[in-house]
Amino acid sequence: MPTAFTREHVEAIAALANLELDPSELELFARQLSDFLAYADQVRQVDTAGVAPTAYVARGRQRLGNERDDAVAPSLDRRDALANAPEADAGAGLFKVPRVLG
Amino acid sequence: MTFTTAREIRDAVRSKERSAVEICRDSLARIEAADGAVHAFHTVTADRALARAADIDRHHDLWRDAPLAGVPVALKDNICTRGVRTTAASKILESFVPPYDATAVARLERAGAIIVGKTNCDEFAMGSSTENSAFGPTRNPWALDRTPGGSSGGSAAAVAARMASIALGSDTGGSVRQPAALSGVVGLKPTYGRVSRYGLIAFASSLDQIGPLSLTVHDAALSLGVIAGPDPADATSAPEPTVDWAGALTGDVRGARIGVPSRMLDAGVDPEVIRAFRSALDVLAGRGAQIIDIELPQARHAIPVYYLVATAEASSNLARYDGVRYGFRAREDTLAAMYRRTRARGFGTEVKRRIMLGTYVLSAGYYDAYYVKAQQVRTLILRDYETAFERVDVVAMPTSPTPAFGLGERLADPLQMYLADVFTVSANLAGLPAISVPCGFTANQLPLGLQLTGRHFDESTILRIADAYERETGWWKKEPPAI
Question: What global pTM score does this model have?
Answer without folding.
Answer: 0.97
